[in-house]
Write the C-alpha cells for this entry.
Amino acid sequence: MTKHNFNAGPSILPRIAVENTAKAILDLNGSGLGLMEISHRHKDFQAIIDEAVALFKELLNIPDGYHVLFLGGGASMQFCMVPFNYFRSKAAYLETGVWAKKAIKESKGFGETIIVASSAEKNFNFVPSAYEIPADADYFHITTNNTIYGTELRKDIDSPVPLIADMSSDIMSRPVDVSKYALIYGGAQKNVGPAGVTFVIVREDTLGKVERKIPTMLDYRTHIGEASLFNTPPCVNIFTLKETLKWIKALGGVEAVEQMNLKKAGLLYDAIDNSTIFVGTAEKESRSLMNICFVMKDAYKDKEEEFIKFAQGKGMVGIKGHRSVGGFRASTYNALPIESVQALIDAMHEFEKMVV
C-alpha cells in the first residue's frame, strides 16, 4: 500500500535526498568511509557545508551582510539565543500559538516583554493584523507559520525595529525578502531536512549591541567566526539538507515550489469548504499552506476517530490533529506530492458518502 505522509515534523523529505543520504552514509564520494565516520574538518565535509550555505543564499536571494549558520538545539534553543544576543531593555512579540508562547516565556526571563497582539482568545485560529510595534523595542519577534493551529503569516512585514522570525515550518515554501529581517531561524525538520539541524540567517551588523556576557555557544558571533564549525555540527543532517535544497533548485526554486504549494492547499481547502461533514478551523485569511487543520462538524463529532482509522486504512499517515486541539491536520510540506493530497480528498469523499 502506498503511504501518504502528512506528518507535521519530522516529516516527508524528497525521496532523492533520502536515497543520496543513505548512499553517503555507506560510502561518501567513493572514499571508503561513510558520512557518519568522516571528520567535520575533512575537505569532503567542508565542501558539503559550503554547498548548503551557497544554496540557501541562492534560493532565498540572501543579500550581502548576512550569514547562514547550521546549529544544533532546534528552534527551541533559538528562543533563548535571540534574547541573549538582542535583548537590552524591551522586546516585542506577536503571540500566535504554542511556539510563540514558548519564545515569549524565554524572553520574559530577560526583562520587559511586550505582546503586541495575540489570537489566544480564539484558540489561535487567526494571525492578528491590527497592532503597533513599539518603536523603542530592541526587536520584534514573529512566528510565520503555526503548525498546531494551521495559520500562517505569508507576507514580509515592515518593522521599525529589528525583525526576527521563527520560520521553522514554512522556510523555502515561498520567496522571502530577507532584507526585512535581522534574523530568521528554524528547525529543519519540516521543509529543508531531518530533525537535528537548525538553520539561522543572521545580519551581522545587528549583533554585538548587548552588554551582557553571552555564553560562548549561545553567541551567534561564535558560529559566524567558525562558519558553523566551532563544535562538531550535525553532519548527516546537513548533508540531507543540502540534498533537499538541490531538489528545490531543480524544481525551479522557491517560486516554483510556492505554486505547487498553492495548488495542493487549494485542492484540500476546497474539499473541506465544500464538505457536508468537515469544516476548517483557521480563519480563511490566515490559512496556512503548510498545515491544513480541520474537524468534523458538530453533528458528526463522534465520527472523528472512525475517520482517522478509515484514512489510515487508505495509507494516510499523520493526519490526527495535535493533542491540544484534536481533529485532523494534513501537513502539506514541499516534498508531499499532489497525488497524496488527492488521495486524502478521495478518502474524505468516500467516508462522507458512508456516513451521510
Q: What stands out?
A: Residues 253-273 form the longest helix (21 residues). The mean pLDDT is 97. DSSP finds nine helices and 14 strands in the chain. Residues 282 and 338 are 22 Å apart (CA to CA).
